[in-house]
Write a structure and sequence with these properties.
3-stranded antiparallel beta sheet, single chain, 4-stranded parallel beta sheet, alpha/beta, about 150 residues
Length: about 150
């Protein structure tokens, strides 16, 4: 039997650069998944504001893809700050990694790099429906995939 899983992240309360609307957007996406696409509350890991730490986002993303099999539906929504940092490898054509900015961002190791997103999502087998919706700056190549 196929399963549905979603990770929904919305961050307004950044300590130095708060946003407005990210949590509301994430709530609306969660509601849409429930009301329009048959996801249940148990199918969703929802991280808002102070819960949207680097560790919690990483853990939720690993939960999202763990045990995925053909026919499953996976959904990741992130609404918050995005940025760029100097690449940690030589493969980035522009020399920068795109990052998601968790609420505990520290610009050293508390961030989610595009390389990490690619590695996580590359574990998803063919035949799984994976949708990633990134509502943040620098999201165009945030998965480091040729096929986005």
């Amino acid at each position: 039997m196929s399963k549905k899983r979603a990770v929904i992240v919305g961050i307004n309360t950044y300590p130095s650069a708060p946003l407005r609307g990210c949590v509301n957007d994430a709530k609306m996406v969660s509601s849409m998944l429930t009301n329009q696409f048959g996801f249940t509350n148990q199918d969703q890991k929802i991280l808002f504001d102070t819960k949207a730490t680097t560790l919690n986002i990483r853990s939720a993303l690993h939960w999202l893809v763990q045990g995925a099999t053909p026919g499953d539906t996976l959904f990741f929504h992130y609404s918050g700050h995005g940025a760029q940092v100097i690449a940690d490898n030589e493969f980035e054509a522009n020399g920068y990694d795109e990052i998601l900015c968790p609420v505990d961002l520290n610009w050293r190791d508390k961030m989610i790099r595009d390389n990490e997103l690619r590695e996580i999502f590359d574990t998803v087998p063919h035949g799984v429906s994976l949708t990633v919706l990134l509502d943040c700056c620098h999201s165009g190549t945030a998965l480091d995939h040729n096929f986005q």
